[in-house]
Each structure stands twice: as structure tokens, then as C-alpha cells.
């Protein structure tokens, strides 16, 4: 837990970012968890996943935009990505995931309005090509504003997905609220960010127990649960709950990250389950990768072995 907190604190350090960026081990971790630098790389990865009946949700890496001009660049990147997906005939396989702080959330008082505008443009483009958008959840301080943004988008695009993090104390209340919306697409995960003291469970068993409580609430509701975990125990519980509450494989989905448990992703898909892989691409991978190593230090060790034994 201490290592996790230290690593998550490091995710904001520019000095460390420069220091690690050039190493071979870092390159190994990037290659494993990131589809590539360009939108074309992500589209190629989505096509390869589709060959195994795996759906995807593509994320243009980058967060905490420090200027409206930067949010415009990222928005245009998503619009281009959606066009590429359409050209490749992949829109029934791939959707997009978007970080609200890359859209403007956090840029002062106007930031929330800017995020709704930018995300609205991405949603309109997604609707045009026949796919969907999920709004990622970031640090705890952004949760209320992100839920407001999602609610405003859903008034126009009811298929917009949101994310809930079981490590936050507030999440069971949020789950009850979103579960009341028929068809609401809700990705449930444990949570990957450093949380303010007192706002989150710190014991893994408590995080897991809270995950199961929210999962049960979603499975018994009319929402569409998206179960985002690599944890075999939670995957089994999701399968059992879905069966118990009469859900077929079309009524919920499993989600995992690109590069994490690919064999398990394919195994679930081969059973007929809907499995969606979160596919990040871009050059701004530092924060994303630090979170992967924080949640599982073995991810760095694995990549280091791959590089050093090459
Ligand atoms: P955890 O990290 O607790 O691991 C449990 C067990 O799973 C491990 O002991 C191991 O057995 C197995 N395992 C985990 N990773 C493995 C690997 N790479 N290889 C093999 N086994 C592995 N977070 C957030 O805050 N906001 C968000 O918007 C999202 N979005 C998101 C989308 C998707 C599709 C996923 C899968 C995850 C997220 N997350 C997220 C990240 C999430 O909150 C969480 O940090 C990670 O999924 C890690 O937690 P796990 O539930 O996988 O279990």
C-alpha cells in the first residue's frame, strides 16, 4: 500500500517523467500496455482484438489539460479516431473512452462547460458513425463534476457510459443513483488514483467487498454493468451474480486493459461473453503507466524481464 501511494504521488512528477522516459525497461512497459503512438496504431489493435471477438474502448492518452487549446487538440484527435474507426468498419467493435480533465474539467470555473462542449462534439461524432463514448473517472476531487458532466451528456446521448470506483466511500450511493437509470452503461472498477485521506477504503479486502456490493446493485438493476477488473475472484462473482439475476451474456460485459491477462480475455470471449479491452494510444503515457505499476508492481518486473532477456 505504501509503495502504491508513493508511485501514485510520483505520477505527477515532471522530473521523474523525464528520467524514466528513455530507459529500455520503460520502453518494454509502454510496448506491453500501449497500442502505439498514433490513432492508426489503436485502430490496428482494435482490428486484431476483433479477430478474437474482443470489443475495445480506445483512449487517447493525456490528462490534466493545462490550457483550452490543448483540449481542442485532444478533441480533434478523437474526432479523427472516430473517422478512422468508421473507415475501417470497426464501429460495432470499438468505442472511445475519454478523460474529462483532457476535455477541460479542472480548468477553473469555465472548465466544466468546456468539458461538456468538447465531449458533446465527440458524442455527436460517435453517434454519427454508430458507436458509443465512456467518460473515465479520475481523481476523487473530480468525481462530482464528472458525474454532472455525464448527466448533461446523457440527456442528449443516453448511451454515454460512466465509471464508478469501488474504493471511494461515496460510490455505493452513486451506484444506487445511476442504477436507477434504465440502460445506463456503468463501468465498475476498483479505482486507480491517489485518494484524499478519509475518502477511500485503503484495505484491499474492503475495496473488493465494496466492489461486490456495487456490482450486486448494478446486476439487479436495469443498468448495463461493465465489470472492469482482472481479478479472477471478482470475475467469477460477476458471472455468478449475472446468472443468479437472469442476465445473459448480452446483458453485461467484462472489461480489461490492453496487455493485461490477454489469455483470460480470449477465454471469456470464447465462452460467448462480451469482453471489452481498454486500448490506450498516444505519446502521453507516463501517468497511465505509473498507475499500472502502482496497482501491480509485477507489471514492471514482467516488462523488465522481457526487455533484458531479449
Ligand atoms: P487488482 O489490481 O487488485 O488485481 C487483482 C488480481 O488480478 C491480481 O492479484 C492478479 O491476480 C490479477 N491481475 C491484475 N492485473 C493483472 C495482470 N496485468 N496480469 C495478470 N493478472 C493480473 N480506474 C479508474 O480509477 N478510472 C477509470 O476510468 C478506470 N478505467 C478502467 C477501465 C478498464 C477497462 C479497466 C480494466 C480498469 C480501469 N481502471 C480505471 C483501473 C482500475 O481501477 C484498477 O486500478 C485496475 O483495473 C486494477 O485493478 P483490478 O480490479 O484489475 O485488480
Automatic annotation (TrEMBL):
Task: Write down the superkingdom of origin.
Answer: Bacteria
Q: Which Pfam families match?
A: Pro_dh (PF01619)
- What pathway annotation does it carry? Amino-acid degradation; L-proline degradation into L-glutamate; L-glutamate from L-proline: step 1/2
Q: How is the cofactor bound?
A: Binds 1 FAD per subunit.
InterPro entries in UniProt: FAD-linked_oxidoreductase-like (IPR029041), PRODH_bac_arc (IPR008219), Proline_DH_dom (IPR002872), Proline_oxidase (IPR015659)
A single GO BP term for this record reads: L-proline catabolic process to L-glutamate
Residues involved in substrate binding: 99, 291-292
Report what the protein is called.
Answer: proline dehydrogenase
Q: Which organism is it from?
A: Streptomonospora mangrovi
